Amino acid sequence: MVICALCGSPVFLRREQAAGKYMAEQVVRKNRQAVYCFYDKDGIVDGYVPFFLKGLREVADGICVVVNGEVCDSGLELLRTYSDEVILRPNDGYDVTAYKAGLMHILSEKEDVSSVILCNNTLFGPFRPFPEMFEEMESRNLDFWGITAFEGDPGDPFGTIRYGYIPEHVQSFFMVFERRFLKTEDFGYWWEQLPAIHRYEEAIGYFEAVFT
């Protein structure tokens, strides 16, 4: 069994029928796509954003920026310069809904996606090159992983988590999902049945705290 490096959850592997053993699906040609959610109440793209996107380009073959709300003209030009495409959408549903919009777009338009990065502009960096981190995490043969994990809490201060407590989970500002996980029915169904997000508490209870 392969375990997520951060949250300790079991991951899904493909069964090799002939040998009766579990093995990871091998993808010869990498095609890693990234969804970057951007939101700023004033629509300003600060300098750390293109710096981050430039670093992300070292590990992503494609970058789709999803803007929640408004962005100034100069900021939009920056986002277009450092990405492959920019999706503009209303500021509703928080980052989870922006992730969904970008993810559905990528999976419907791109062929042979080997992995997807979901990240947003609450994250600063990189302070070390992204390729170092990805090389290490790929050597662990994980189905999904993230940079940090929340250790959990016995209560639910948001009143929206179905377990009644906050489970340990990978934090949603940077998550990576490999092909074998993206291709599972459970992954697609989870996004299809995701309810509309209207409040911050729902973003936590319906997505952040329970997705991983």
Topology (elements, then pairings):
Blueprint: E1 14-16, E2 21-23, E3 32-38, H1 48-56, E4 62-68, H2 73-81, E5 85-89, H3 94-109, E6 115-120, H4 130-138, E7 144-146, E8 149-150, E9 169-170, E10 174-178, H5 179-182, H6 185-192, H7 200-208
Parallel strand pairs: 3-4, 3-6, 4-5
Antiparallel strand pairs: 1-2, 6-10, 7-10, 8-9
Give a description of the structure.
The protein has 212 residues and is of the alpha/beta class. It has one domain: Alpha-Beta Complex (Spore Coat Polysaccharide Biosynthesis Protein SpsA, Chain A). Helices cover 30% and strands 20% of the residues. The protein is built from 7 helices and 10 strands. The strands form 3 sheets. A 6-stranded mixed sheet has the order 5-4-3-6-10-7, sandwiched between helices. It is globular and about 45 Å long. The protein starts with 13 loop residues before the first strand and ends with a helix. The model is unreliable at 1-29 (pLDDT under 50).
